[in-house]
Amino acid sequence: IVMATAYIVWPWLWPDPLGRLGQSLSHWDYTPVEYFLGQTHNSTPIYYVVYLLVTTPLLLFIPLALGIYHVARSADAFKYAVLLWFVVPFGYGFSGFLQGGMRYLLMVYPPMAILIALGISGLAVHAEKLKISRNKAFAGLTALALAYLLFTAATISPYYLDYYNGLT
Prior knowledge:
mainly alpha, 7 helices, 54% helix, 5% strand
């Protein structure tokens, strides 16, 4: 199904599907040199992990870590699927073609958002000890996270594509 879909939506393949696919896959016969941690050199397998660490707003790591912890303590296969959805794309770091920052790993952001929401939800459960309803705590923490993201977005102007967090 994947190959048929690729053939249908990629007209460049139509005249010679196997030849042109081979040509497309073989034109990357070099290791890109990238700016990585302030220096130019060949990228390493940790390239994308480090890029995520230096481009994610810092305070989001707290609910992300809590969400991962929540999944690790869970017996829910769907939650493990979300965790795999988040982790597996970083395997792309073992390919020989590492470049472009996070643009080749954009697929990690939806599961990352779900894991962050699980972390916020876990924090909201603990708010019940303070006599605050779980729903109100979740709404408040979510609003706080949104305000933080809006503040972060407002302060990076005009460098929207070159955001680096406080670790950098």
